[in-house]
Amino acid sequence: MRLDLAYDGTDFSGWARQPDRRTVCGVLEDTMSTVLREDVQLTVAGRTDAGVHASGQVAHVDLKSDVDVAGLPKRLARALPADVRVFSARVVPAAFDARFTALRRHYEYRVTDAAFGAHPLRRLDTLAWPRPLSLDALNAASELLLGEQDFCAFCRRREGATTIRELQRLEWVRDGDVLTAFVSADAFCHSMVRSLVGALLAVGEGRKPVAWPASLLSLTARSSEVTVAPPHGLSLVRVDYPADDELAARAAVTRNVRVAQTSRAT
Fold it and tell me: Is 107 marked as binding a ligand?
């Protein structure tokens, strides 16, 4: 069964279960296990860090066939806390895997350079930046980062995980005093989006040259010069999947690519 969900990450210690920490996965699995009276284990499209939000997260779970799938979101709404909601639930082919059949993930990062800071109603999902930002500089630097690259300079290293990713979109749009970064890739490594944003903000305010973020791609380790942007400006907004008859092929390709990339990275 596929679940489409959203959460306000402010009071969560990220997606993944952690001992003695409130996490999205922990809350969802515990609540669903109680409501459905069976053990629930979720697989998610992309694990988000502490404080990061999601409006278009996707997960899957194997459940007994007699579950009222259509009525599940309403049942869960009565049991879940207000900062997480399952919008829809539906039966999908067995080949569906929220993580490995995903084609790409889409994130948005919101920043405001307004002199007064973030609007009170958006303070939990918008970073207040104290200096004016140049949209042209942000986009010029972003364009140089596109394509398949080794983003190890922008990632927190995880043992056995590759840092090679295909960055498909990195574009900034200004609406008044709010700038939004639209970031899409086949997948992201740990802290990659926030690190990219942190580096680009240094360019946007004129502290670093346009070519600086792309120059870091030649490094073979995480750069100490890159400041990770705060988590609350970041939201996972959508995950793309292929047609049902292409799911198995996509999962095979993704797993093979990850193995090949890990070998290249090491």
Answer: yes
